[in-house]
Design brief:
The complex is a heterodimer of chains A (318) and B (780). Chain A is an alpha/beta fold and 318 residues long. Chain A is built from 14 helices and ten strands. With 780 residues, chain B is an alpha+beta fold. Chain B folds into four domains: 112 residues, PAS domain (Beta-Lactamase, 2-Layer Sandwich), CATH 3.30.450; 91 residues, Beta-Lactamase; 228 residues, Phosphatase 2c, domain 1, CATH 3.60.40; 134 residues, Heat Shock Protein 90 (2-Layer Sandwich). Classes of the chains: A alpha/beta (318), B alpha+beta (780). At the A-B interface, strand 7, helix 7 and helix 12 of A face helix 3, helix 5 and helix 6 of B.
Chain lengths: 318, 780
Amino acid sequence: MKRIILSLFTLLVIGGAGFAQKRSKIVFSPQWTAQAQFAGYYVADSLGFYAEEGLDVTIKHPTKTASSLSRLAKGECDIITMHLMSALKAREEGLELVNVLQTSQQNALMVVSNTPLHGNPENLRGKTLGTWKVGFDELLRIMDKALNLNIQWIPFAGGVNLFISGAVDAQLVMNYNEFFQLKMAGLRIDEDNLFYMSDISGYNIPEDGLYVTTRYYKAHKAEVDKFVSASRKGWQWCLDHQDEALGIVMEQVKRNNIGTNKVAQKWMLGTVLHMQEIKETGERPFTLKEDVYLHTVKLMTDYGLLGKEAPEYKTFVK
Amino acid sequence: MALFNSFASRISFRIIATATVILLSLAAGAQFFVRSSIIKMEEDKAQGVLSNTELKINTVMDAVETVLRNNLRTIEQNLDSPQELYLVVKNVVESNKDLIVGSALAFEPYYYKREGMRFSPYCYNDGKDIFVKQLGSEEYDYHSMDWYLIPKLLDKPYWSEPYYDEGGGEQLMTTYSMPLKDKNGKFFAIFTADVSLSWLSEVMDEAKYYEKSYNFILGRGGTFITHPQRHLIYNETFFTLSETLGDPVIAKVGYHLLDGNSDMEETNDIIYGPSYIFYKPIERTGWSMAIICSQEEIFSEANVISLVVAILILISLIVLAIVSFTGVKIMVKPMKQLASSADEIAHGNLQAPLPAFKSHDEMGRLLESFRFMQSSLHEQMDELGRVNAQKGRIEGELKVASDIQMSMLPKTFPPFPDRKDIDIYGTLHPAKEIGGDLFDFFIREDYLFFCIGDVSGKGVPAALVMSVTRTLFRNVANKEKSPDKIISQMNNALAGQNDSNMFVTLFVGILDLQSGRMKYCNAGHDAPILVGESVGFLPVLSNVAAGIIPDFDFVAQEVLIDPFTTIFLYTDGLTEAENTNYELFGLDRLKETADHSLDEGNRQPEDFVRTMTSAVHDFVGEASQSDDITMLAIQYKRQSSNVKFQRSLTIINDMAMVSKLNDFVAEICSKAAVDEDVILKIQLAIEEAVVNVIDYAYPKGQTGNINIEVQVYDAEIVFFIRDYGVAFDPTTKEDVDTTLSVEDRPIGGLGIYLVRQIMDSVRYERNDGANILSLTKYLP
């Protein structure tokens, strides 16, 4: 009896809250299809952290025809995740973005090769290198220029078949995704046949962060702050409850019909959470440090990825 | 264990154990061979099925490759009119409806400037209709697709990894891509054929030949292309499965598959658990086919056979156990009967009946042996009875002999209760019932005659010689008054009739009860100890044991026994008493015990002997006594009325003894309260006299005793210097002519002159072979 009364009371309170306050609608687009890379947001959504902040969040994954960036440009979504370098580039191309949360503190790019690399990018000189058609390879292209490596770039759609078939000498992979796929494809990768960009001095450029347009930020500062705080809470929960978080990710994966499996997503979650730590200190600041920002801007400017003057740190990072 | 106390159970156990080992080894061996041959058979079967399947796949793929090759010429002819190329791909699909569901001719960017970046005539069959269209678009940038890129980069035809076609009704597809080159060898396009693989599942299902088995195909990247668990297809690879199940064996097998091997091995399966996997690559595509068979099913027949064999083994072992147990039991039954007969015999019934059975085997022999043993035993027991009776008689006689022997020894102590001047105590503990030790004493004309002796050997012969010796002693000592003569006569008597080469060590002493002067002679016996003011060994000449050398010249010695001194005599049974560690009691312990006894003021004969007895008893402990132990203690208690006190010293004829002599003289003179300067003079006189004896009394090189006795009276002190050397009277020497130079004076003259000057009286007498020089000094 007691329990029934309690349930009724709870229902009343929740229902009442629903009536009492109209929740702010936010459309959120991660930069890729559903996977553990975005676990913190799925968790915040699924466990009601957004709702608790009075937000009504819709998660819309990009499709072949609509990337998160293009959606943001068109005003079809409000908040996106994006690589830092892509965001800086987009800003230069006219889409005024501000960084409201920096999840990644390390670069996830790595090169896997059929021939030994001995941890030295020089060994890629003149080699064919598979890279994603859609991008994410800016950092390696800078390195190609910087070291004059004369890499033969082979853009391809995705997956690991190109490398497995032996059609390319080397391939760019993400340590949280394709690297594991390669392992799970039965490839016995020698440690000597790969290197992590995060290990190369000056190239450990952080990646994922949350971005909104400057205009949206000015108009909805409160909602953005709430979204950021709920998202951080989501990520923290992931760190504390990795198995449960993985379950929530797998639900998303199933709902979005993504061909993957639990072990791959487990690897991805673990790796993504690890990359939220600053490599040297193990700290998880969830913000973009100024020196890192300035270094990134300089690197991009020096190698022609940025033409105009980049915004001040305080303008870009909120 | 009681179970194994019988022959039957022990032998049966051994037989069963051996049989079990042999049968189990045979069964294990058979099982191994059966299993091996089953596996071999299964492998052959599986590889046959897999080859057959590969053949089917190859047939289809060959056909597809041939179709494309056959169209190359048409393409070449129509390269100049791109729109005609739509007809080529349409023809490919139309003419091969059962084989090819789609075909594209995808050109390099801007191959036809007019057609733009992507030009790719494409035809496909959705199962109902055939459509023709341009494949490339902004959404579908085929230039970056695997099917285009890989053959282009590898510069050879390529069968793509299988994929699920999203447009064409969810069917499993693969694409065959052929790179095209112009006359100059320059690559310009990829020509493809999309092939449905829906038949592949059927082919794989056909190959299934067990209830608990299934087949699957893996792509180059380990991805499941076919699998009965459909959710695995495309989502999982062999290695994610291994990771999910946490089973590294699966990954190991996976590597073998991807390496293109054709083999079989044990694995763990997601459906059937412990299984065998048989695999073979599809060479053309780099895919792998595999058959999983549950081990349980493969070996189901073998397991039934094993069970039957196990039951048969168990039954045979039980039968064997029963047969061997009862068989052995019957065989050893006579042994049991023999055992109870033997028990009866052992209990004394030598007439116990033996079991009656006829047998010519070992059992029969055993019975014969038993019978013989029984009769022999009977005879032996009779003999033993006779011998025992005899032995009893001899023992009785020996007891009597021992009694007689012991009765020969003095056994009443104190022996002379009326005399106050002498106390004697003696014991003899024989090692065997009768022994060869003896001691005796008697008083004749105020002289105590005593002896102690040890006959060589033991038992009756020693006892007989001991009796003879004791009788001899009584007889001879009754007539003679000097110990050397007594011993000499005894020696001659013993040696004269000594056919058995026995000898006696003897010590004979004659103590003048008036003066305390003791003459003694030793024949190879241990030196007695004197327990007086201190404990010391009586200086004795060893001579030889009596009974060995007839007419041996035994030398007597003499000593003055100080009042209350105890003479302790013993046989070597005391000093050679052995403890359990084979250590001897020895002279040191003897002396130690005597010292200790003296320290406690104990030198009364009986107490002293008892102290010594308990000391040796404690020392020996549990060890058995190996020799007779005989002890005789004599305490002389008489003191002459006017002599204040007297002392004696015996030294040998060696100049080294002079200092000892001087000490002795000084000590006794001090006790007599003589003035210091007079003492020095007396020392000089005595030294002169003794040195004279040392120099001349005995032949050069012969050791002899010199005895110095001192009697202190109220008004005088008298020294007696006694030796047993050649007769020599120094008093007859002329006083030296002191007017002559030292060199010209005759030897010895000065000495006696000096002595006369110092001492008040100098006398010489020769008595019983001894030179006695008495020197007197009046005391003020």
